[in-house]
User: Fold this.
Amino acid sequence: MKKKVLAVMLTAAMAASLAACGGGGTASTPSGGETTASTPTESTAPVESTAPADVDYGTGEIKIWVADNITDFTKTKVDEFMAANPQFAGYTVTVEAVGEGDAAGNVITDVEASADIYGFAQDQIARLVSAGALEEVAPENIDAVKNGNDAGAVAAATVGDTLYAYPLTSDNGYFLYYDKSVISDPSTLEGIIADCEAAGKNFYMEINSGWYNTAFFFGTGCTLTYDTDDSGAFTACNVDYVSDAGLVALKEMIELKSSPAFQNGSSVGNSTNAAAIVDGTWDSGAAQDLFGENYACAKLPTFTGSDGATYQMSGFGGFKLLGVKPQQDENKLAVCDALAAYLASGEVQLARYEAVGWGPSNLEAQQSEAVQADVALSALAEQLAYTIPQGQYPDQYWPLATSLGDSIISGELTPASSDDDLMAALQSFQDTCISYAG
Assistant:
């Protein structure tokens, strides 16, 4: 990577009351508007960079890709930043709608033609680094990023020991929604199931999902990750499900399925007679409608394993990140760094939450009155401390994990199954996972 001799860090603060943004959804085809320093929108506070005002940063164009539902918001923030930093007046900034799920693929396809700054999902970071599509975070910004954001988001933005991206959110994962008139104590799975059974209510969790059933396996200490080479090909599978820990996790899934209160699923909108459901923030509105004044949220519960030990349910966590593309022009790189640091700052994260509901990764923003009042985000933030960032997985992994859960749902694996039979199922699963690499 090129040495960033002019890299800068944004330090000034701005107010959290900000303009509204555009509609929802994402787009893979760029479509956006152009903003310049000469046409700023109204700003409520200065957003100056510490970049020296007497340096000639030259001229150029900077392209930013963000999700469709934050394009208008981002344009407003860019305008405010450019208006407050006349030393960057030679640059024209264009904001285009490219969803974080599509950005990485588009960038890797043509790095040179791609955006200079772009949002992406954390599971794409290894591919982007391998493709040479991410510049390291400016040295002057590293401490601020590491100290200002939660540990999960920082880990998601890091490859090896190097910080490659600016965290934007900590808001993708799952936790517990529940009816507090039914569930007396959401801290243990045994207690939740007992309350549901006593009330004739249902507990929902999607155990035939490779995303959700990791809550059991990662909770008992199992590992399932993949390594990739520079081309993005899977080279190794790090998995130890065939173990005492894996057996405890599988037995817990079987025990859960044996409860008359259990229902397989993870969508509030598709649930019936539910008193508790493992789901994500995207269903918070539906959960509030379902439970009404008894609406409550919590991190995932603990469970007592077949070995008598207590385990905290874990799983995957997801984060949105903002990356800067390597530049030949060090002056342009300095401007991109300053702008990216600003767009990922705590003040802008909080404003983005207020505009579109994206959950901040910034620690101060998480402690704001507005975010703290969001019980779903608070529960998710607590749960993310026990999760691992979702990396890259072969496409075949997901149906394979579904089949493991289906073997429980169908009754192929039951509480009466022997340890040998359960280990054989885990061995088959693990061997197949390994076969997808190399």
